[in-house]
Amino acid sequence: MHKPTQAHHVQPMDVEETKIAVLEHRGDPNHLGDSIRTFIAWRKQNHLHPSRYATFNILYDDPEEVAAGEYRFDLCVAVDRDIEPNAFGIVGKIIPAGRCAVLRHIGSDDTLRQSISYLYAKWLPQSGEEPRNFPLYLQRVRFFPDVAEHEAVTDIFLPLK
Question: Is the model's pTM score more than 0.85?
Answer without folding.
Answer: yes
